[in-house]
Q: What sequence folds into this?
């Protein structure tokens, strides 16, 4: 008995293409709504218009939004990624300092004569807590 006789290969391929086309469209829909509601340069009424347009005429609305705002959408994504990277770098710099850098700085102060050995030991104990 042949199981797949009623569903030929081209029908399977067509079904796969339709499924991935739907997944792609749904991903674009999420990207458009994410970009739309993340924007600060557009007022509430414009967001309402775009939202209704994308909901009422989904494929056409997404395509028109991408044509109208695609370049700016990319710029906003790059700016958001750069801001996130800067925040991460600042966090790493702040965290990486830690006790070792405090002790090294205190050691430099002792060697330069700015603080005494007792003050160095006190700073060292505080840093290690």
A:
């Amino acid at each position: 008995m042949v199981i797949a006789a009623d569903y030929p290969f081209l029908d399977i391929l067509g079904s796969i293409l339709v499924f991935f086309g739907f997944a792609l469209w749904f991903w674009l829909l999420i990207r458009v709504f994410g970009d739309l509601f993340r924007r600060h340069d557009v007022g509430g009424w414009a967001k309402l218009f775009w939202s209704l347009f994308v909901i009422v005429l989904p494929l056409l609305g997404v395509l028109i939004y991408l044509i109208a705002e695609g370049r700016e959408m990319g710029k906003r994504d790059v700016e958001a990624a750069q801001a996130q990277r800067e925040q991460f770098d600042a966090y790493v710099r702040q965290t990486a300092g830690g006790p070792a850098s405090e002790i090294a700085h205190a050691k430099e102060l002792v060697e330069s004569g700015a603080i005494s050995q007792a003050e160095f030991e006190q700073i060292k104990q505080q840093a290690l807590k």
Residues 9-98 form one domain. DSSP finds four helices and no strands in the chain. Residues 58-112 form the longest helix (55 residues).
